[in-house]
Amino acid sequence: MCPTSAAPSRGIVFALIMFAATSLAVDYCYDQYYCSPYSWGDAYPSCHPIVGAHHSPINLDGNMARNDSLGGVHLEGFQGVHAGEWRLKNNGHSVVLELGGGMAVMGGGLPGTYQTLQLHFHWGSSTTNGSEHTLDSRRYPMEMHIVSRKSIHHNLTSALHDPSGLAVLGVFIDVTGLDNDNFTVISSLIPSIAYKGKTVTVKPFPLLNLLPAQNLSQFYRYHGSLTTPPCSQAVMWTVFEVPIYVSQQQINAFTSGIYQSEEGANKTLLQRNFRHIHETFSREVLASRDATLIPVSAVASARSALALVLFALLLLPTWLP
């Protein structure tokens, strides 16, 4: 066979191999046993809970130490309206708002300046709450994550190899009786990105509008991981104690209006897109100077009371005639 004919054959074989490899790649999910968070470690080894001791999310409770040196986080450029356009996207795993430049997170004990890249959401279903972190075992209806990369890194790959390469702001979202006008900027666009792969442009707005602006000095800090594959343990977490409030209708836009499937495919709602709670192990979990702590004694008392109730329920049949 002449060289001119052999080359295309090798090219075709290589293309077929790459196609097969891509086809066999397992995407992660939240609702099927073979690709749910408990199985992510099969396809993404760093997601396995025995690999490292800094997985996220965690339960935030009274078993943490207050650090008076942790003052408020400084959010540069969050108050302004930036030029250009942002993009709101359904990536099949979440609703992601891809941000332009001009915003950074620093201070509050963070080891550097972090350039803000995007934010995304986690939610439950029509009957369950869906925040990733829990506060004294309470799971909020939703949670928003604002993701920033340490400025010394020029790409995400580099940042993920740095134990403090990313800074993520976690914001609990609770329900109230009225629409949150600031949140409407996003929730009103959900129908336009109902299906996986759909994208719509968003006119920039002050990102501070989506934060508990009067309570930014009340937060919890710990070293953790991404809560989605590859689960890199490279995140400095700042989880604000005080939630923002939106209406049930605005929450329903996510729980009942976002599909993990593409348009034209079998409709599959994207629900309960949160990872399970992980142990803190020996990690230091800190409360900022202004954060409200649940006393450890109260936590212990609550657990003791629950144990007594369970014990009484076990004995209940013996009391009945």
From TrEMBL:
Residues 26-289 form the Alpha-carbonic anhydrase domain. InterPro entries: CA_dom, CA_dom_sf, Carbonic_anhydrase_a-class, Carbonic_anhydrase_a-class_CS. Residues 1-25 form the signal peptide. Its cofactor is Zn(2+). Reversible hydration of carbon dioxide. Belongs to the alpha-carbonic anhydrase family. This is Carbonic anhydrase. It comes from Scleropages formosus. The gene is car15.
